[in-house]
Amino acid sequence: MIRIALAGYGTVGQGVMDLFHKRKEAIEQRLGKQVDLPYVLVRDTSKPRDIDLQGAILTSDVRRILDDETVQIVMEATGDIDLGYRLMKEALEKKKHVITANKSVLSLHFEELSEKAREHGVYLLYEASVGGGTPLIKPLQDLSLHGEIRSLRGLLSGSCNYVLTKLREESISYEEVVEEATELGFLEADPIDDVGGFDTRRKLRILATLAFQGKTEEADISLEGITELKQEDISRLGERGYAVRLLAQAKREGQRVQASVHPVALPKASFLGAMDGAENGVEFFGENFIKVSFQGSGAGRYPTAHAMLSDLEDALFELRRKDLVAKKEPLHHEPFNEETRFYIRSAEPLTLPVEEKWGENIWLTAPIEYLQVKSMLPPGAVAIPIEK
Amino acid sequence: MIRIALAGYGTVGQGVMDLFHKRKEAIEQRLGKQVDLPYVLVRDTSKPRDIDLQGAILTSDVRRILDDETVQIVMEATGDIDLGYRLMKEALEKKKHVITANKSVLSLHFEELSEKAREHGVYLLYEASVGGGTPLIKPLQDLSLHGEIRSLRGLLSGSCNYVLTKLREESISYEEVVEEATELGFLEADPIDDVGGFDTRRKLRILATLAFQGKTEEADISLEGITELKQEDISRLGERGYAVRLLAQAKREGQRVQASVHPVALPKASFLGAMDGAENGVEFFGENFIKVSFQGSGAGRYPTAHAMLSDLEDALFELRRKDLVAKKEPLHHEPFNEETRFYIRSAEPLTLPVEEKWGENIWLTAPIEYLQVKSMLPPGAVAIPIEK
């Protein structure tokens, strides 16, 4: 008998419970052992929930899970920074496997928790933390095994991408789209975590650390959200065949790493340019495998729960490497830079080399470096790099 | 000490040797065991090769490998139907793990070889057989575990896609592109296996069987290659925003399966429509995970060798399920059908419902079923379904 505790019973937690019971019998048959989910940890045990607890005990006492030696696996879906961290850390110390969707805690404590898992010989699995239902972490761990990844780029916020897609397809202001997306539940009540790019940066911090086998922290990643963009910018670039995306990117040359999250105009007929709506997708470039890309549902109850259940099966069947902690390549972080053409909207005159005038206050620059544009941009102006 | 025999020393085999020796030390360090590759099986031992044998014995005697009890893993990269089959079958019977890139043998003997592996408790791994360097088989095995895949579609021939992309981008005839691609080594001297869709069908046979957990054979898959297409068809659809692709698709409803390989016009700004050049990509649709897509290098020495090495590490570290044979869901196969608009080129008058005339002898039909179009098409006419 293997006993699992589930922490958190919101959107994702309830999805985990539902899928767990749908698949329980098939898992037990293949495993030759019973698998049970006796505890659900919540903050408020009196709140009503959609999904039946199937006999599990609802508790708000974290000790009940941590001190129960028969609980071998903790599935963490609280979304809570403090509780999530304390729970995962102590669970690993008590030799319980941990499966989490909590990207905030991972971003803050990735190396420490990975090291705890290694030290105590248990799994720390987090497929659901980046890309929701997209199988991303597991193939990335395989791809990065021999240090062959040179760069990666991706769209990691389904909600940002939803906003940007709407702005291109409809005559609607940025403010209206954000309001609509918030009402539909695509954005949080305070949307700045998404549209400011903070959520994307957290995920890039995890992906880049795995990809380059050394620590890349949030502070190492330059950040610019989509809050300064106007419908006009996006539709003008749209007319010329470009889709504006909040692109997360990181590249490595030797021990030098550049990582950034900022809006980029990509050709519509490209992998990431064609990716409309709320999906997530990432491209990895490297030696030998050359290039591989993954795309899928970035969020939602069932895609995220599906990813946590995949991790659960890997833990039950011991199908993952335990020696794969975030490695310790000594990396040197530089400001992100790249030469490309820029779309510029500016009420003030430009001192940048201009190639074309696209309209009132709108220009296309000659190829120029990102850092140079940033330093020479008049106040209030917007600059969007355009990829060929 | 774990001993590996490599069968085949052509493009892929030499890539395997090269990567194996580049990664050997890192693998041994993690595994805590020595790993050696003492034999290379070839047809002609006198032929010169690019890549150094690193002390391995070159032999044309298959018994040398099969009868050596110290050989625990066979990596098969012969591309030969008869030898490949005999070697893999007997290796599995002798409890050796088998890693193969040989889609022809898998397509012919998938169930038998899978069953042999299960029976003898060893691995049969074939990541390199479909999609070259794209991690596809391993995530597909995970996704299909609970019978949740409803449909899949993909581009599985890099060479066909190269030909179709060239035809759209350049004013060049089908015959000229095929000749050029053959000279560049993208197509075999006799290109019919690729452009006739036979190679794609073999790969779809493997993917569909895994996805739906029951046998789908080549004979169950309707087939139409790209040989009847003209530059004119592709450029006219290109002007209207479509990319013509040789699409492999399969869908399941209950126990009923429809599978097909035929040219389809896809919007350029879609995952598969944007996929120009020699890449491979597949989309899977299903319950819970909703949709996931994978894309990567479909062929080439190092991408394919990389996939075989990934399988090798999974076998060495026992990171794959052994109970995953092609399952035995009793499936019923129907002719592929779907309602959509069609691009028609025909010198004869049409009896199909026409929506627009696009030019001399070129029409766009109203939405109509695939099987109906096929039955009513005048001789010599070409029909390409158009996806929204």
Mean pLDDT of chain A: 94
Count of spatially separate domains of chain A: 3
Number of helices of chain A: 12
Query: How many angstroms separate the termini of chain A?
Result: 56 Å
| Strand segment count of chain A | 18
Radius of gyration of chain A: 22 Å
Strand content range of chain A: 25-35%
Characterize the overall form of chain A: globular
Largest interface: A-B, 49 and 49 residues
Structural class of chain A: alpha/beta
Strand/helix succession of chain A: EHEEHEHEHEHEHHHHEHEEEEHEEEEEHE
- CATH third-tier fold name of the largest domain in chain A: Dihydrodipicolinate Reductase, domain 2
Full CATH superfamily name of the largest domain in chain A: Dihydrodipicolinate Reductase, domain 2
- Largest sheet: number of strands, sense, barrel closure of chain A: 7 strands, mixed
Residues in helices of chain A, as a percent range: 25-40%
Oligomer: homodimer
| Unreliable parts of chain A | none
By CATH reckoning, the class of the largest domain in chain A would read Alpha Beta
How is this structure best summarized?
The structure is a homodimer of 388-residue chains. The first copy, chain A, is α/β, with parallel strands linked by helices and 388 residues long.
Walk me through what this model shows.
The structure is a homodimer of 388-residue chains. Chain A has 388 residues and is an alpha/beta fold. Chain A has 3 domains: 2-125, NAD(P)-binding Rossmann-like Domain (Rossmann fold); 139-297 and 330-335, 2-Layer Sandwich (Dihydrodipicolinate Reductase, domain 2), CATH 3.30.360; 337-388, no CATH class. Chain A has 12 helices and 18 strands. In chain A, strands 7, 8, 9, 10, 11, 12 and 13 form a 7-stranded mixed β-sheet that branches. The first copy, chain A, has a 6-stranded parallel β-sheet with strand order 3-2-1-4-5-6, with helices on both faces. In chain A, helix 3 packs parallel to helix 4 (103-120), helix 6 (158-169) crosses helix 7 and helix 6 crosses helix 10. The longest helix of chain A has 21 residues, at 11-31. The model of chain A has no long low-confidence stretch (mean pLDDT 94). Chains A and B meet through helix 1, helix 5, strand 12 and helix 11 of A and helix 1, helix 5, strand 12 and helix 11 of B. Strand 12 (290-297) of chain A pairs antiparallel with strand 12 (290-297) of chain B, so a sheet runs across the interface.
